[in-house]
Design brief:
alpha/beta, Purple Acid Phosphatase, chain A, domain 2, 2 domains, seven-stranded mixed beta sheet, six-stranded mixed beta sheet, 10 helices, 22% strand
Length: 321
C-alpha cells in the first residue's frame, strides 16, 4: 500500500490513532504517534465562569497560540492549560496563529480539533480570531484549498482572509501569509491594505498576527520575501509586536528596529529551534502566550501545559509614531 504522508496521517487520525488503523498501517503509524500527536486527548472537564474578563479603553488580556490542529493529547494539554489560565486571569480573546486543522478537512475534524479542546473557553464566550496557516486546507494553493479556507472562515466566524480588529487599547491586523496570499501573485493587494490599515490606526498598540514568521531560528526559518515585502511596512508604521506560528517552538527576538517578533507555534507538536543572533529567548516546548496590556505596558508570559513559565517579557508602547 502506498500513501502520501498527508493521506497516511489523515487515515491514522481519522480512526482515532494507530490502534485502529489495522496491520497494513501499524508499522508506519507507531513511530509517528508522539511526533504527530495522534493519540487522542481527554476532553477538558473545566466549567469556566462566563465572560469573566474586563476590557477597557486602557486594558486588555488575551491569549495567543498557533499550530494546534492535531486534536491529540498534546493539543488538548495546551488547550486545558489555556482554560486554567482563564480561571486565574480571564481573557476574552484568543489570537490563533494558524494551522488549526491537520490530517483532514476542517468540516470533518472541527469537533476534534476545535470544539472539544476549546470547549470550556467557547462556553465561557471567548472569541477566537484566526490568521490562516499553510495547513488550513490543502498543502498547495488550489481551488480545493480556497474552498477549505472558506469553510474554515465560516465555521470560526472569521470575516475575511485578512482583516483588522480592535480590542481595548490594541489594534490587531491579521494576515493570510500562505502562498500566494502575502508573498506570491496578488500579494500587493494585501500589503497595500496593511499599509493603509496601519496608517489609519489610532490605537496605542499595534499587533500584527500571521502564520509564517518574518524572522525565525526554527526548522522553517525566516520566511522568504518577508524582509523585503512586509518588514518595511511594519517598521514604517512602528508596529509593536508581531505574532506568528509555523515553526513548532517558541522564540522571541530582540527588538529589531523597535519591533519584537514572537513565534508561538507549540500548540500541539514540536520541532527544534537553535538560537541565533536575533534570539532573546527560545525553547522547543508546548506552550501558549498569556498577554496583559495595561496602558502603555504589555506583559506576556509563555506558559507550558504543566503551568511552568518558559519566558516573560514586557514591552512599552511605541511613541512618536
Amino acid at each position: 500500500m502506498s500513501l502520501t504522508r498527508r493521506q497516511f496521517l489523515a487515515a491514522a487520525a481519522g480512526v482515532g490513532g494507530a490502534a485502529l488503523t489495522g496491520g497494513v498501517l501499524a508499522d508506519q503509524v507507531w513511530p509517528l504517534l508522539g511526533r504527530e500527536d495522534l493519540v487522542p486527548g481527554r476532553t477538558p472537564e473545566l466549567v469556566l465562569p462566563r465572560q469573566a474578563w474586563t476590557t477597557t479603553p486602557d486594558r486588555l488580556t488575551f491569549a495567543a497560540v498557533g499550530d494546534t490542529g492535531t486534536g491529540g493529547r498534546q493539543a488538548v494539554a495546551v488547550a486545558t492549560r489555556m482554560a486554567q489560565g482563564y480561571e486565574e486571569n480571564p481573557y476574552g480573546l484568543v489570537t490563533h496563529l494558524g494551522d488549526i486543522c491537520y490530517y483532514g478537512r476542517i468540516e470533518n475534524r472541527f469537533e476534534d480539533v476545535f470544539l472539544r479542546p476549546y470547549g470550556p473557553l467557547i462556553e465561557a464566550g471567548v472569541d477566537v480570531e484566526l490568521a490562516i496557516g499553510n495547513h488550513d486546507g490543502e498543502v498547495y494553493f488550489s481551488d480545493a484549498r480556497l474552498d477549505e479556507i472558506e469553510t474554515e472562515l465560516r465555521l470560526l466566524g472569521t470575516p475575511a482572509r485578512y482583516y483588522r480588529t480592535s480590542h481595548g487599547p490594541v489594534d490587531f491586523f491579521y494576515l493570510d501569509s500562505s502562498t500566494p496570499g502575502l508573498f506570491g501573485p496578488g500579494a500587493t493587494d494585501q500589503v497595500d491594505w496593511l499599509d493603509d490599515a496601519l496608517a489609519t490606526s489610532t490605537s496605542q498598540w499595534k499587533v500584527v498576527c500571521l502564520h509564517h514568521p518574518p524572522y525565525s531560528s526554527g526548522r522553517h526559518g525566516s520566511t522568504p520575501g518577508a524582509e523585503e515585502k512586509l518588514v518595511p511596512v511594519l517598521e514604517r508604521h512602528a508596529v509593536d509586536l508581531v505574532l506568528a506560528g509555523h515553526d513548532h517552538n517558541y522564540e522571541r527576538t530582540v527588538p529589531l528596529d523597535g519591533i519584537t517578533y514572537v513565534v508561538s507555534g507549540g500548540g500541539a507538536k514540536l520541532t527544534p529551534v537553535r538560537p541565533s543572533r536575533i534570539t532573546a529567548a527560545a525553547a522547543s516546548v508546548l506552550q501558549y502566550l498569556h498577554v496583559e496590556v495595561d496602558g502603555d505596558r504589555l506583559t506576556a508570559r509563555c506558559i507550558r501545559p504543566d503551568g511552568g513559565l518558559v519566558d516573560r517579557f514586557t514591552l512599552r508602547a511605541r511613541e512618536g509614531r
